[in-house]
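Field notebook, page 281. I keep forgetting to write these up properly, so this time I am using the form the group agreed on. The chain and the ligand, adenosine monophosphate, are recorded exactly as supplied. Prediction of the bound pose follows.
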Amino acid sequence: VDIVHTISDFAAIRQDWAKNGWRVGFVPTMGALHQGHLSLVDQIKPNVDRVVTSIFVNPKQFGPNEDFGKYPRTFAEDKAMLEEKKVDLVFMPSAEEFYPPDFSSSITNLKYSTVLCGAFRPGHFDGVLTVVMKLFNVVKPDVAIFGKKDFQQLQLIKAMVRDFFMDIRILEGPIVRESSGLAMSSRNRYLTEAQKEEASALYKSLTEIKKRVAKSVRRKSELLAAASEVISEQRSLSVEYLELRKPTLEPFGDEIQLPAVALVAAKLGSVRLIDCLEIHE
Ligand code: AMP
């Protein structure tokens, strides 16, 4: 697999691909790859002629007290996994080139960047949208894919692409889970086996909501209380939010309608975990 670090090196290859008329698929990541990331590569492949994966731990999406410095960086393993998946190119820009001293712009979602995760991570989604816009402008993908694990992120990226008339098709990857139900995440590397078992209560709480919805419960407070109870059995989990929303992220009143999405964020020690579950008719 070719590894490219600068925008100009990438552009040269991208021009060649354009001359051949090749359609390009893009899988942006922050590295520390796992099966969730690799599933995105598998899903985008049949849609395109060339696949680019980026690995960039984007400093702008981490708050001052978050884990930017400690975020797992496992490049040798990442490279081997992407080679095995036959990704064509890995783009690893430098923070210096992406954010030079005169860098002064930002992309904001005016509606949903300060709710859910945004309420607990001020500026996070501005950092995400800004880097995704920059990556899109360099990679110039025809198709890009994002996981539903980061459900709010996915909705905000879809909104950006729509609002700015960006000519990129966005695919959505289902959440890949451990057998316990725990959503795979780069941050799971920080957890012991026992902690991972505890963390799987997040998924169990979401499935509890789904079960009750299947039994025709629609009262939001009742659904959330049941989920909350499941999580509270694990003393180590401290919930940031547990919510039910429309798939567009619009809030419900007292009664939910379908389709809906249940979303949760919690901390286990200093490790922040998120999960969600879509609920259909
Ligand atoms: P990250 O490296 O955490 O920025 O994630 C890169 C991409 O992988 C994002 O689109 C995530 O939503 C997606 N992703 C992360 N974990 C999973 C998972 N367990 N299942 C599916 N997609 C995932």
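OBSERVATIONS:
- The longest helix spans residues 124-139.
- The chain has a mean pLDDT of 98.
FOLLOW-UP: compare against the apo run.
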